[in-house]
Structures are given as structure tokens and as C-alpha cells.
Amino acid sequence: MLKLPKALLSLFALGSLALHAPAQADEPVVTLKLAHFLPAHSVTQADFLKPWTEKVTEESNGRIQFQFYPSMQLGGTPPQLVDQVRDGVADIVWTLPGYTSGRFPLTAAFELPFMSRSSEASSQAMWDFLEKHGQKEFADMHLLATHLTDGALVHTTDKPIKKMADFRGLKLRAANRTATKTISLLGATPVAMPVPQVPEALSKGVVDGAVLPWDVVPALKLHELVKYHTETAPGMPALMHTALVVAMNKNTYENLPDDLKKVIDNNSGRALSREAGRIWDNQVVETGHKLAESRGNEIYVLSPEEQAKWMKATSRVSEGWIEEVEDKGYENGEALLEDARQLIEHYNAQLPR
Q1: What letter would DSSP give residue 109?
Q2: Nearest in space to 229 (alpha carbons), one of 304, 294, 298, 149
Q3: Where are the alpha helices (DSSP H) in the chain?
Q4: Under 8 Å CB-to-CB from 297, ≥6 apart: which residues?
Q5: By C-alpha distance, which of 124, 96, 107 is closest to 344?
Q6: How far apart are CA 82 and CA 36, in angstroms?
Q7: Strand order in the sheet with 189-192
Q8: Which of 3-7, 101-105, 279-283 is predicted least confidently?
Q9: What is the value of pTM for the model shown?
Q10: Sign (positive/negative) of CA torsion 45, 202, 189, 117?
Q11: Distance in angstroms (rounded) separating the CA atoms of residues 97 and 264
């Protein structure tokens, strides 16, 4: 890790904005701490966040710089990232709100089973939906982007999942409460854990498999730990998606000079969300397939008829979401869910055919 001078460390202790000696007194250089839970070589940092930071640095004429802290190098655990950005431990985080159970119920709409076919479309839909309905959920931070991973699939060690009956007796890693409910309804036993714990859990037999998108396969070397991968039917919705956000400390953002705020604004929002979704729809799926095939793993694709059975079995998860958001004070959860679905279809219709 880069060793920082004592003076700079003192500034970090006083606040999360680090001001370096500027070329001119009225043009300070701001260094932002950007934290996430995956390794530096992951698609998250190498292909999404790093190009974004380079663009922001260039458009700010070097006045916005970034220091990456991958793999939880600022301490804590992945579920604590939302509090780290809220409290100023980090200036910006890329994180999974679903790790913090129940705190982001509206965001969880986009993680419901069989909700989405395209990350690019649904990432934009999620941005619009949270702008419209989710201000309370993110009142204590400044959202820069919302996006979905590629669709989650089932990775298993000893036997393939080809029909619902194959879930019986298996313990499968789950990311959040939605995944836990979905896995239970399909017939397996869910075991909730953050992504970094998955390799050890698989190698020690704590779980028999994991419900994960292709995007984490290279970082976790998951293709070396499992033998089978089950995908949903072509043209049909994915089993589920994981919702992620790029969020900034609110005070950090508000204390930026207006011209630097404009640089951040011009490079965030729906456009950044769409770019993230595009990366996860295409690049990470292709990479995951190549790695699995290089190990001789089997990739099984569900038939539409079998997938229809899975969709029917998990329909209660959406009903439970409606009840949950209404219990938390939101009016008409059914209308909220319908709005999310309509936004998804709106952006699906804009995709190239």
C-alpha cells in the first residue's frame, strides 16, 4: 500500500477530504478515498471504477484524484461499507446495499427473482426508480450510480442443477434476504455470507454451491472450486440480480467547489449506471464462460418449461416484498413494484435488437 506522509494522514484524521499543496491557492487538489470489497484486479475496479476515476481526473484537469482501497483495506467487513461512506471513513464506496438487511427495501425490488433480463436496462431503471421513490433510503449519502450485476446463476461442486428436485439437500450461499427466501422456495438450504467468504466455504464444504453472477468468478477463482453452472433459459429473466451502488459521502460532495461538483455530476447518474450494466451484461459473462470452459466445467441452460416452474415457485418472494415495504411506511407496495417493472420494460425496449 502507498505510504502517506504524516501531514496527509493528519488531514485524513480531521476529515475525509485530503487537500494537497495546490498549484494555485484557489485550485486545491482533492484526493478521494474509494473503497470496495473485491480485489484490485476484479472487473469492478479494473474495468468499471478505474476508467471512471481516470475520466473524472482528466476532466477536472487533475484537481480530483483517487486513492483505491480494494478488499476492505480501510478495515471492517463488506456490510459496513454503507456506514463507512456515510460516516466519512471512505469518500466513495462501491457496495451492495442488500448486505445490510432491511435498510434498503426499495433497492431490493431489483433483486427479486426473475425480475430482469438485462443489467444495462435495469440499472437505468433502478436509477430512475430510486430518484423517484428512494430519497429516504439514501438521504445520508450522495448517489453516483446504481447498477445490477449480470444475472445470478447456480454454481455447484458435486452435481448439476437441472430441475427443481436437484436443489434438495444442498446448502447454497446466498447474498441477502431476497436470495435466502428464493433459495429456500427452490428447495435448498440458504447460507448467507459476503462474497469474500465464498471460496473458503466451498473448499471446506460449508456450502455445496453458491448463487452468484459470473462477474465474481475471476476474482474468487470460483471456476476452480465448482464443476457445474446452471443458467436460466435464453430470452427469459435471470434467476436474480444483485443490486449495487456507487455512493459518495454527502459532506465530501457538498464541500467540493462548484466546478468540481459539476465534473462529478457530469460523470455520474443514469449514464454511469447504464455503462456499468453494459459491462456486466457483456464482458463479465463472456469471461466467466471462458474460464468455466477452460476447466472443463459443465454449463447447463434451463429449458423454458423448467424455468417456468422455478418462476411459479418463487412468486411469493415478490408478494413478501410488497408487504415489507408497506410495513416500513411506504404506500401501495404493489404500485411501487409495478412502477419498477414498467421502468425495466421501458429501458429493455431501448436495447439493440
Answers
A1: G
A2: 298
A3: 6-14, 43, 50-59, 81-87, 119-133, 177-186, 198-203, 217-220, 250-254, 258-266, 270-281, 283-294, 304-313, 315-327, 333-348
A4: 223, 226, 227, 228, 229
A5: 124
A6: 10
A7: 189-192, 171-174, 209-212, 153-156, 228-231, 298-301
A8: 3-7
A9: 0.86
A10: positive
A11: 22
Asked if residue 58 has pLDDT above 80, the reply is yes
- The per-residue pLDDT of the chain, averaged, comes to 91
Please answer whether residues 300 and 160 qualify as being in contact, where contact means their C-beta atoms are separated by less than 8 angstroms.
Answer: yes
Distance CA 184, CA 99 (A): 18
Q: Which three cell numbers stand for residue 117?
A: 433480463
CB-based contact 336:325 (threshold 8 Å):
yes
Q: What is the pLDDT of residues 269-323, one digit of tens each?
A: 999 999 999 999 988 899 999 999 999 999 999 999 999 999 999 999 999 999 9
Owner of C-alpha cell 421501458: 346
**DSSP code string of 222-246:** GGGT-SEEEEPPTTS--S---EEEE
Grid coordinates representing 324?
Answer: 415489507
Can you tell me which residue has the cell 474460464? 291
3-state secondary structure of 292: helix
